[in-house]
Write a structure and sequence with these properties.
Blueprint: E1 24-28, H1 36-43, H2 55-63, E2 73-75, E3 77-81, E4 87-91, E5 94-96, H3 107-115, E6 123-126, E7 139-140, H4 146-163, E8 168-174, H5 178-186, E9 190-200, H6 207-211, H7 216-230, E10 234-240, H8 246-262, H9 271-281, E11 285-292, E12 298-307, E13 311-319, H10 326-342, E14 346-348, E15 362-372, H11 375-400, H12 407-411
Parallel strand pairs: 6-8, 13-14
Antiparallel strand pairs: 1-3, 2-5, 3-4, 4-7, 5-6, 8-15, 9-14, 9-15, 10-11, 11-12, 12-13
Helix pairs in contact: 2-9, 7-10
C-alpha cells in the first residue's frame, strides 16, 4: 500500500463525459495542510450544511490523531480543480487497514476474502470517520455541472483504487440522492440498504404538542420518564461549542470516554479534538448536560451532538452513574425539545436502537455503495445484499407497526 500515491492529472484521463479538459484532480493526504483559501473553498462546496463535512471537523480529526494512520485511517482526499487551481469539487477519502470506526458492517466480508485466499485490506472508504450519519459524499461547487464533476471524481477514485490494489471501494451513508446512487450503480457499485430511526418535525409547537399524537399509554410512559429525571435532583442545560471553555470540556470529556472504555473500545477522539471543533463550529456543536445539585453542580452526564440548519445529529453519550431514564432524556427528549425550539426538521440520534421507536423515531432506509474488485466475490456479495435488502425492508415495516402514534395521526403522515 502506498498511502501517498499521486493521481495523474485528470485532464489526461480519457472520459466520455462533458467535463472541460482543463479540469484536473489532485490528491491530498492531509486535509489539515490545505491553505486557508482552499479550506474556505471546501466549506463552500454543496454539502447540505452537513457539519461533519466541514473542513474544521475533518482536519481536526486528522490533526488530533483520530483519522490517522496509527488508527488505520490514511487520508486520501481527492479535489477537482480547474486550470487556475480553483476548487470545483472534492470528496473525503481514506485508505483503511481495518473496519473499526467506519460502520461499514463488512467484517464478515473480510473473513470471506481470507477463506477464499484473498486480501480484503486495504480498502478505500469515502465517508466520515466514526460517524454513521448520512450526507453528500461527492461534493461540488455551486454552479458547477454536477454530472461531469461527479464522474470525474469517480474516475479519480477508481484510478486510486486500482493503483493501490484495493479489494473494495466504499461510499458510506449516502444522503437521499437518487442521482448519486444511480451514478455509483452505473460504475459497478452494489447498493446496500440499512435502517436507522429518525425523528421528523411536523411543525410541533412544543414537546406536549408532539406527545399529543401518541396513544395514551405511550404518552404516559414518556411523561413518566421525564418526570423521574426532573425529580432526581439533576439540572439540565444546553451548551453550544462556542459556549464551552476548557474547564467545562474537562468535565464533559470523561463521559465521552467512559462509554467506550466500558465496552472495551477505543475512544478515538481526544479532548483536544472537541475543544478545536467546538471553537471552530460554534453553534454547530450542541451538548446536553446534566448536573447534580448534590455534588456541587458537577456534570454527571453529557450527550454530544452536531447540527445543521435543518438537522440535529446525536453522536456520543456518557454518564458516571445509572440515573433512571436520564439516557432517554439527554439523548432523545432534550434533542426533540431543541429541534422544536430551533425549527429543525429532523433529528438523527445515531445508529441502531429499537428503543427509539416507542419514543417517536421512525424507521428510515440508509444507503451505502460498494465496488468489489474480485468478480466472484462481487457476485456472492451482490446475492447477499439482495437478500439483506429484503430483510431490512421487512424489518422497517415491522418497526413501523410499533410506532407510538395514534392511528388517526399515523394516517395523517406523522
Amino acid at each position: 500500500m502506498n498511502p501517498e500515491l499521486d493521481l495523474r492529472d485528470g485532464a489526461d484521463t480519457q472520459s466520455n463525459d462533458s467535463a472541460p479538459r482543463t479540469w484536473h484532480t489532485t490528491l491530498h493526504p492531509a486535509l489539515a495542510a490545505l491553505g486557508a483559501a482552499d479550506a474556505r473553498a471546501w466549506d463552500a462546496l454543496e454539502r447540505g450544511g452537513n457539519p461533519f463535512l466541514r473542513h474544521a471537523f475533518l482536519a481536526a480529526a486528522e490533526r488530533h490523531g483520530a483519522a490517522a494512520p496509527r488508527l488505520g485511517w490514511h487520508p486520501q482526499h481527492i479535489a477537482l480543480r480547474d486550470a487556475d487551481g480553483t476548487l470545483l469539487g472534492a470528496q473525503p477519502l481514506y485508505l483503511r487497514t481495518h473496519s473499526f470506526g467506519d460502520f461499514s458492517r463488512d467484517w464478515n466480508w473480510a473473513e470471506a476474502f481470507e477463506r477464499a485466499g484473498r486480501r480484503y485490506y486495504p480498502k478505500l472508504v469515502c465517508g466520515i470517520p466514526y460517524t454513521p450519519a448520512g450526507g453528500p459524499r461527492l461534493l461540488t461547487r455551486p454552479g458547477v455541472a454536477r454530472g461531469p464533476a461527479t464522474r470525474r471524481l469517480l474516475d479519480a477514485t477508481l484510478e486510486l483504487a486500482a493503483a493501490n490494489a484495493v479489494s473494495c471501494v466504499q461510499y458510506l451513508f449516502l444522503d437521499d440522492d437518487a442521482d448519486t446512487r444511480a451514478a455509483l450503480a452505473e460504475n459497478g457499485f452494489l447498493l446496500r440498504r440499512g435502517c436507522q430511526f429518525h425523528w421528523h418535525n411536523a411543525g410541533y409547537r412544543d414537546f406536549d404538542d408532539f406527545l399529543a399524537g401518541f396513544s395514551a399509554d405511550k404518552r404516559k410512559k414518556v411523561r413518566r420518564e421525564r418526570r423521574r429525571v426532573a425529580e432526581s435532583g439533576l439540572t439540565l442545560e444546553v451548551r453550544h461549542g462556542d459556549e464551552i471553555d476548557t474547564a467545562l470540556w474537562q468535565e464533559i470529556y470523561p463521559h465521552y470516554r467512559s462509554t467506550f472504555t466500558r465496552f472495551g473500545n477505543h475512544p478515538a477522539f481526544p479532548e483536544e479534538f472537541f475543544r478545536a471543533v467546538g471553537a471552530e463550529l460554534g453553534r454547530e456543536l450542541v451538548v446536553f448536560l446534566a448536573r447534580s445539585e448534590s455534588c456541587d453542580s458537577r456534570v454527571v452526564a453529557a450527550a454530544l451532538c452536531f447540527r445543521s440548519a435543518t438537522t440535529l445529529y446525536g453522536r456520543h453519550w456518557g454518564a458516571d452513574a445509572d440515573y433512571h431514564s436520564l439516557h432517554f432524556e439527554l439523548c432523545f427528549y432534550q434533542g426533540i425539545d431543541y429541534c422544536i425550539r430551533e425549527g429543525l426538521q429532523s433529528f438523527e440520534p445515531g445508529a441502531q436502537g429499537e428503543h427509539k421507536v416507542s419514543r417517536g423515531f421512525v424507521p428510515v432506509p440508509t444507503w451505502s455503495a460498494f465496488r468489489i474488485a474480485d468478480p466472484g466475490l462481487h457476485a456472492a456479495i451482490a446475492d447477499y445484499l439482495a437478500d439483506e435488502a429484503r430483510a431490512v425492508a421487512d424489518y422497517e415495516a415491522e418497526m413501523a407497526r410499533h410506532l407510538p402514534f395514534r392511528h388517526d395521526v399515523e394516517a395523517a403522515g406523522a
